[in-house]
């Protein structure tokens, strides 16, 4: 029974891996956006983390996840005498890579971390049935990679402790690599292994050579990572110059996040946000089970002796020190906590668990900003068809304004094509509607000139209704002509319960869900 259930959950994970939802801009701009411009010469926009005077993001852990698959695809296309692969193929290949990493490494690690054979199967199925596994773990997040590194860090700690007879140099090397890759991937990584790592102190006291080996391997991997980052950010620097003036991204990241004024630009949250709101959002009904499991008197010592539990809870406590707290920061906690709770065939829990994960899975894995990727992938065809329909023979620069959406990934536009206009992407984020119209009015040419201006916005934005062309004369000077729409798109940032009320807001955001692409033109008498 458990095999069939696991295979079904595997199919569900594949479905969500190939669904183009968009959970956070970082899943594109801190990974694929960087290397797509390097490998394929796609249009790309590096975020400030990679362009600051003291860059805070490392490319060392990103190289095997993104650049290697991209380079292999580019090599294959060059060998077949074809141009660069289409961005849609690259996008889904990277999603496939993340799915394989989740399927192989995460499930394997969870299986090894649970010591009891009778609980292993149930735990693997429980983790595989979480919407976090379906969505976040199949997206190109640094947090998803951190989940794998944390899990395997705990596996290596356990293997080292259990191997009491002889030293395992291979385990030392792998553990050192995981530690270095984890720190260079996210500065939050040490918070997950700090307390469980204390178990190694008696082992190091008994075998000092093991500590020397781990530090030695770690120094080698860290040196390689620093040189790799330095040469990436200072491409003109020589090898000796990179050694004398290195770029140490984890240190820059730590210094940046230690300043509260910097975190304020990303949003400040109460200190209890992680323990209350974020864990509840990630775990759902399992959060209640966890609370009852921890605070039952016989269970407290059991949880404190559990490396998985101490890793998750101590990391949540340490990360709560920083006032900027997002749910995705706690993604590594999800498989660790789920592997600690025991469900005694409760039909009520099973029903609530299924409903919660199915609802959150479709919300976050299908509908959440789900139209951005399809719109950007289709943008060149949309513009090409509209250009031909308007009879534009020249190739002016086409301006595409994005409003009330996440930042669109530039690399999804693919390689430039001389037969259609060059595309200039303008991200307006959530500026007021009046400012949007002013920006459009400044860009749309005068009456009688064909317009190379487009607007991408949620169909739930009722402000645009007064400008949508209906075939009859309208008062506004600017008119919007819809060219394309995608129904599976919900903009949760557009929830305005305070002004509109709960029911009207849900009717608008959910009932009018979707993302549209409009051609912006002037009304000519």
TrEMBL record:
Instruction: Give the signal peptide range.
Output: 1-17
- What Enzyme Commission number(s) appear in the record? 2.4.1.-
Topological category with respect to the lipid bilayer: Multi-pass membrane protein
| Transmembrane regions listed in the UniProt entry | 169-189, 209-227, 348-367
Q: Name one GO biological process term.
A: GPI anchor biosynthetic process
InterPro entries referenced in this protein's UniProt entry, alphabetically? GPI_mannosylTrfase
Q: Where in the cell is it found?
A: Endoplasmic reticulum membrane
Question: Per UniProt, what is one GO molecular function of this protein?
Answer: alpha-1,2-mannosyltransferase activity
Its UniProt pathway annotation is: Glycolipid biosynthesis; glycosylphosphatidylinositol-anchor biosynthesis
Q: Where is it found, in Gene Ontology cellular component terms?
A: endoplasmic reticulum membrane
Q: Major place of localization?
A: endoplasmic reticulum
Q: Which enzyme class, named as a word?
A: transferase
UniProt KW keywords: Endoplasmic reticulum, Glycosyltransferase, GPI-anchor biosynthesis, Membrane, Signal, Transferase, Transmembrane, Transmembrane helix
UniProt KW Glycosyltransferase keyword? yes
Say which family it is in. Belongs to the glycosyltransferase 22 family. PIGZ subfamily.
Q: Which PANTHER family match?
A: GLYCOSYLTRANSFERASE, GPI MANNOSYLTRANSFERASE 4
Name under which the protein is recorded:
Mannosyltransferase
Which organism is this entry from?
Answer: Penicillium ucsense
């Amino acid at each position: 029974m458990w095999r069939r259930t696991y295979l079904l959950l595997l199919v569900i994970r594949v479905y969500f891996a190939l669904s183009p939802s968009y959970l956070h801009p970082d899943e594109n701009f801190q990974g694929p956006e960087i290397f797509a411009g390097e490998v394929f010469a796609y249009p790309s926009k590096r975020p400030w983390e990679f362009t600051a005077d003291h860059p805070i993001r490392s490319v060392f852990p990103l190289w095997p996840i993104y650049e290697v698959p991209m380079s292999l695809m580019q090599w294959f296309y060059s060998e077949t005498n074809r141009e660069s692969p289409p961005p849609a193929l690259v996008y889904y290949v990277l999603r496939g890579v993340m799915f394989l990493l989740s399927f192989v490494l995460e499930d394997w690690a969870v299986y090894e971390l649970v010591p009891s054979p009778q609980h292993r199967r149930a735990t693997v199925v429980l983790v595989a049935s979480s919407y976090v596994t379906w969505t976040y773990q199949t997206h190109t997040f640094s947090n998803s990679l951190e989940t794998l590194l944390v899990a395997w860090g705990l596996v290596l700690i356990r293997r080292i402790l259990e191997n009491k007879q002889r030293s395992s140099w291979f385990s030392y090397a792998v553990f050192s690599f995981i530690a270095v890759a984890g720190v260079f991937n996210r500065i939050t990584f040490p918070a997950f292994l700090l307390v469980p790592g204390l178990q190694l102190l008696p082992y190091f006291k008994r075998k000092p050579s093991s500590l020397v080996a781990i530090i030695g391997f770690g120094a080698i991997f860290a040196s390689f990572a620093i040189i790799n980052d330095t040469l990436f950010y200072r491409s003109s620097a020589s090898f000796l110059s990179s050694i004398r003036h290195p770029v140490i991204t984890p240190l820059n990241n730590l210094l940046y996040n230690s300043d509260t004024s910097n975190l304020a630009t990303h949003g400040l949250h109460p200190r209890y946000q992680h323990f209350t709101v974020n864990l509840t959002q990630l775990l759902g009904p399992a959060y209640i089970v966890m609370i009852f499991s921890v605070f039952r008197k016989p269970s407290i010592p059991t949880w404190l002796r559990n490396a998985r539990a101490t890793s998750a809870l101590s990391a949540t406590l340490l990360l709560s020190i920083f006032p900027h707290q997002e749910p995705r920061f706690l993604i590594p906690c999800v498989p660790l906590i789920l592997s600690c709770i025991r469900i005694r065939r409760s039909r009520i829990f099973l029903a609530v668990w299924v409903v919660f994960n199915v609802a959150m899975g479709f919300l976050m894995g299908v509908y959440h900003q789900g139209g951005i990727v399809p719109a950007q992938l289709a943008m060149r065809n949309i513009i090409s068809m509209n250009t031909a329909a308007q009879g534009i023979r020249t190739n002016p620069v086409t301006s595409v304004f994005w409003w009330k959406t996440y930042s669109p990934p530039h690399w999804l536009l693919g390689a430039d094509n001389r037969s259609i206009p060059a595309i200039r992407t303008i991200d307006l984020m959530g500026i007021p509607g009046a400012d949007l119209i002013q920006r459009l009015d400044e860009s749309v040419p005068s009456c009688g000139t064909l317009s190379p201006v487009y607007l991408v916005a949620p169909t739930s934005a009722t402000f645009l209704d007064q400008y949508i062309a209906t075939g009859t004369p309208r008062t506004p000077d600017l008119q919007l002509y819809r060219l394309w729409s995608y129904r599976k798109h919900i903009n949760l940032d557009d929830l305005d319960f305070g002004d509109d009320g709960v029911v009207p807001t849900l009717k608008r955001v959910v009932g009018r869900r979707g993302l549209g692409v409009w051609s912006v033109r002037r009304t000519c008498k």
